[in-house]
Amino acid sequence: MSDGTFSAATSPSATEPLALVTMPQRPLGARDVRIKVRAIGVNPVDWKMRSGGPLRFAHRFVGPSGPLVVGVDFAGDVVEAGSAADLKRGTRVVGATNFARKQLGSYATEVVVRDDQCAVLPDAVSYDVAACLPVPGATMLAALGSAGAPPAGSRVLVLGASGGVGLTALQISRALKLTAVGVCSSRNTAVVERFGATAVDYTKGDPLEAARAHGPYDLILHAVGSATYPLDRCRPLLSSRGVVVLVVVRAADVPSFTFSRRVAKVLGKPERTTLEPLVAWAASGALEPIIEARFPLAEAERAHQVSKTGKVVGKLLLVP
Ligand SMILES: NC(=O)c1ccc[n+]([C@@H]2O[C@H](COP(=O)([O-])OP(=O)(O)OC[C@H]3O[C@@H](n4cnc5c(N)ncnc54)[C@H](OP(=O)(O)O)[C@@H]3O)[C@@H](O)[C@H]2O)c1
């Protein structure tokens, strides 16, 4: 065995279970940094990648060769830096891997990414908190961009308000002085309200009808899917400049976001420019992720089973 990373990886077969494997250490490019991973944020894409779908397809074409190492989000310490990298050994960072740059995923003891995929972590932000931020935060920031950066006072409706994306979106809304309404189930109304949003309980009547009373909305962040909350029921809740931003995209949505200016889709792609404001909000306490559970990396499968229930409140973490 070489001085490799110890990663949770799947075999090329999409249905293979996760397995811990030792892999050879990756060489560093000039702007790359090697990071000892301290915490990993679990996102649904991590298990979705294991069973096919467009991102897995893309990974096969443009990703690194060898087994699929899943995972995107991480926080840790720089242990080695390439000659042109702007991060020094010993720096605490948060970041996200990018398979389009031939990088392996973040379910590992060590990752190699480019310096501009990381932001420096102040001492005030723990590795656990930081690892919750990248994909959910980048997704909300991208959605706000799609909605034309709505000014303070604008109204935001979050469908799927209690999940990793939803709770992050509510807190970013609060930080930007946007007025947020979150659709969630009865058990999660308190957490939605804790972050300054109005909760709409989807178990009590028609949630879109109930949300209408708090609109119209300049952004509807759709983090559940149009099979549950159809787009033709969301669009009438928009203000004259409002946009429905799809976080979950179905094939049936393609005509809507292709032909309508009122519907967009996002892909949360964390990089330093998006990570820095998230870290600043976390340092000030404006972003305060809820961590439902932490699992050892070796129990990534268990974390995926929990995530697949679709019932997670906030985030799940893996710890190498
Ligand atoms: N496009 C992108 O870049 C991007 C980025 C991140 C995530 N995503 C996708 O977005 C989706 C959400 O991600 P996530 O990380 O937030 O997932 P998550 O944390 O697993 O979301 C779980 C939450 O969804 C809530 N929920 C389930 N059904 C609901 C419904 N009918 N109405 C309202 N809330 C409901 C659950 O609350 P209850 O138990 O109370 O129902 C639970 O708290 C996933 O499909 C993910 O793959 C896409």
Would you kindly provide a written description of the structure presented here, covering whatever features stand out?
With 320 residues, the chain is of the alpha/beta class. The chain folds into two domains: 5-132 and 289-319, Quinone Oxidoreductase, Chain A, domain 1 (Alpha-Beta Complex); 135-265, Rossmann fold, CATH 3.40.50. Helix content is 28%, strand content 28%. The protein is built from eleven helices and 16 strands. It has helices at 44-48, 54-62, 127-131, 134-146, 164-175, 189-194, 207-212, 231-234, 254-259, 272-284, 300-308, and strands at residues 5-10, 19-23, 32-42, 68-69, 73-81, 92-96, 110-114, 118-120, 155-159, 179-184, 198-201, 217-222, 238-246, 263-265, 291-296, 315-319. Strands 3, 5, 6, 7, 8, 15 and 16 form a seven-stranded mixed β-sheet that branches. Strands 11-10-9-12-13-14 form a six-stranded parallel β-sheet. Strand 12, helix 8 and strand 13 (238-246) form a beta-alpha-beta unit. Helix 4 packs across helix 5 (164-175). The protein starts with a strand and ends with a strand. It binds NADP nicotinamide-adenine-dinucleotide phosphate. Residues 43-45, 48, 135, 139, 159-160, 162-166, 183-185, 187-188, 202, 223-224, 228, 247-248, 266-268, 307, 310-313 line the site of NADP nicotinamide-adenine-dinucleotide phosphate.
